[in-house]
Amino acid sequence: MRNLADTLSKEEIFGSGHALCPGCPGGMIFRWITKSLGKDSILSMGATCLGLPTNVYPSAVEIPCIYIAMAPAPAAVSGISAAIKVFKRKGRIRPDRKINVFAVSGDGSSGDIGLACLSGAAERNDDGIYFCFDNEAYMNTGIQRSGLTPQFSWTTSTLKGKAEKKKDLPRIMAAHDIPYVATVSVGYPEDFIGKIEKARDMEPGFKYFHIHAPCPTGWRFPESKTVEVARLAVETGFWTLYEVDHGSTRITYQPSKLRPVMDYLQLQGRFEGLSDENIRELQRGIDERWEHQSL
Amino acid sequence: MLTGNYAAAHGARLARVEVVPVYPITPQTHIMEKMAAFIENGELDAEFVPVESEHSAMAVAIAAQATGARTFTASSSQGLVYMHENLFVASGLRLPVVMAMVNRTIGPPTTICPDLSDSLDQRDTGWIQIYTESAQEAHDMIIQAYRIGEDERVLLPVAICFEGMIISHYMEPVEILDQQKVDLFLPPYRPEHVILDPDRPMSVHQLILDDSYFTEYRYQQQVAMEAAKGVIQEVDETFGEAFGRRYGGLISTEKMEDAEVALLTLGSMASTTRAVVNQLRKDEGIPIGLVKLRAFRPFPDLELRESLSNLKAVAVLERDVSIGAGGTVYIELAHCLNKRHDSPLLTNYIMGLGGRDVTFEEIKDIALNLFEERDAEVVANPVRWYQVRGL
User: Fold this and answer.
1) Confidence (pLDDT) at A2
2) pLDDT averaged over chain A?
3) Beta partners for residue A103, in sequence order
4) Distance CA A185, CA A118 (A)
């Protein structure tokens, strides 16, 4: 297995001191992304918990960063990369210089309010890497349901559990036929970083990352268990690590045997109210997907 | 012969804009099509971004401008309202984006005909707004807009407004300016302040959790808007020297030297009003003048006070309404004139809503009535819905 400590850049772009909650995976994730993309990058920040380390005055990252509003982080990628394209043609930027334009936004801003914007940038195949930091609810405003909150989950706007299923945003993005779509998890850094490097080194175009990001505050589990919860999501089949590379889909991490979904659910307060029938229903769904090896 | 839309698009081409994000909406769409054609034909070296909404059009413009590119977009009506949120951002980040606001009524009922309530609704977003009355003026002002907005003393986005259909679609003789002359008038955009450049990293638009600088930040926008008053005048003069046409800057006045009463209006209604004023002067000897409001933001309070204070009565004719108050321009004018005790009698005519035609005879009727009541101490109903049928 790859030794990340030796291969990942030592350069810190995301400085010390941030406003993330204790146990938030955002700090780790943001370091992996920025170390993989390097300093010759421009960041479009959307509305997400990940904006906290970069965008709360006076903290800052050592790369240029812009926030516009809740929805349009993808449009900012389009604007920045369009400007860079013109500058290269006009000789204001060396044509061979590779500036990594990337966006980070949340599940609500990507999948709900900003879905049209995200879809537009993907359909135009504008050049950039988009990271959706999916902590499965509107967390900055205090844990309200989003379209990406899983079924039966408690939030402050679904007190008896969310009735509807989670919107499958990575598959929606894959349907845009963009060069690259990947699902990743904070529990699997080698898989995560390998995929960023792959996307970084591809031809220009829109690449989409969907990050499963367990939230101790909103999911109600101890802050020391973030990585454990992340890994259990994958080991139980609740979350699948895959990529769609130019249309070809591959599961990038396959547990040898699935653990029961209960192992994942029981660690989290948000699933406390689930009935046995609810749990059986979730398990059935996972088993069917597993049997057919579908996503 | 050109339509207002094509005249505006040629203005943007001559300004050598570099990123053009636009979403189609009637009556602006010809601008979008023309810009796409310029870029596709190689007449303009720029990136056309066919966005999926007006909200994204402004976001792309903001991000591209922040990266250092000169940008141009256009919108109308519902589309303009849809991008409203991001208009604040363009101004707050001090990015001199330029937009053609092609006026169209906001529904319901939905209509594609013009009134000014769409752009006037954007008045608090921190954009400079200049109203034009012809295709030529729209063409010239798109070019001037970059010079105004990019001025170090200003650094604010600029909207050039003109009425859909009446100006956007009718053809008029237009002189398309010479590229070499425009290049001399308008140097390339090289921002020194906000810039997304990996060699000079900065975080643009942060969240502040305390009261550390918000008030001062807003105040600087106000200072810039005040500075824009002088810059608009200067640019009008410089433009006049270079191209031989001057528009008067913030306001333009006609026949005001010995006027006792005046009609104040903006946009295409200025043309009809001018004809009325000329006829009343010539045939009936009525001492009446015309004030055409060009800049709505910054609001030319000093200039208006100077032109209007000694008059007996002023009527504001406008194609818009702030429901529950009166015409938007009237409200602002009342605010600025009432600072003096010798204010003229002020009346307001709401007309032309939803694109209803405003005729010579109607304006003449208003002018005669204005002259009639010029010595009244007060009037009971200063805000008058002039064209309501069945009243």
Assistant:
1) 73
2) 95
3) A44, A130
4) 21
Token pair of A293 as six digits: 């090896």
Determine which of A14, A49, A86 to mutate to test the interface with B (most B C-beta atoms within 10 Å).
A86
Chain A and chain B share a number of CB contacts under 8 A equal to 158
Alpha helix (H) ranges present in A127-253? 169-174, 189-200, 216-219, 226-235
What is the pLDDT confidence band of residue A61, given thresholds at 50, 70 and 90? confident
Tokens coding B341 = 């005790």
Q: Residue A279: what pLDDT?
A: 97
Answer yes or no: is pLDDT of A1 > 70: no
Tokens of B264: 């104040």
pLDDT for the residue numbered B339: 58
Q: Is there a contact between B21 and A39 if contact means CB atoms under 8 Å apart?
A: no
Angle, CA A77 vertex, CA B30 and CA A123 arms, to 5°: 65
Architecture per CATH, B251-385: 3-Layer(aba) Sandwich (3.40)
Please say whether the dihedral angle defined by the alpha carbons of residues B297, B300, B304 and B305, taken in this order, is positive or negative: positive
Residue A32 in this model has a pLDDT that exceeds 70:
yes
Model pLDDT, residue B150: 98
What pTM was computed for the model?
A: 0.97
* In chain B, where the domains are located: 2-243, 251-385
CB B50: neighbour CB atoms within 10 A?
15
What pLDDT was estimated at residue B290?
98
Q: B2-243 and B251-385: same fold? A: yes
* A117–B63 C-beta distance less than 8 A: no
* Residue B326 φ then ψ, to 5°: 165, -165
Q: Any idea which residue has 């590119």 for tokens?
A: B69
Per DSSP, the three-state class of B3 is strand
Rounded CA separation A62/A43 (Å): 10
Residue type, B258: D
Rounded to whole angstroms, how far apart are CA atoms B26 and B110? 12
Is the Cβ pair A79, B59 closer than 8 Å? yes
Q: Is the ipTM of this complex over 0.95?
A: yes
Say if residues B168 and B3 touch (Cβ distance below 8 Å).
yes
Topology of domain B2-243, per CATH?
Answer: Rossmann fold (3.40.50)
- Rg of chain A over Cα atoms, rounded to whole angstroms, equals 19
Cβ(B153)–Cβ(B187) below 8 Å: no
Chain B residues 210-269 with a CB less than 8 Å from chain A: 212
**Cα of B329 vs its chain's centroid, Å:** 12
Average pLDDT over residues A152-177: 97
Judged by DSSP in three states, A91 sits in coil
For the domain spanning A7-292, the CATH number is 3.40.50.970
Which amino acid, B230?
Answer: G
Residue B139 CA to residue B7 CA, distance in Å, equals: 5
Show the low-confidence residues of chain B (pLDDT under 50).
none
User: Residues 114..143 of B with a Cβ closer than 8 Å to A: which?
Assistant: none
Are B51 and A87 a contacting pair at CB < 8 A?
no
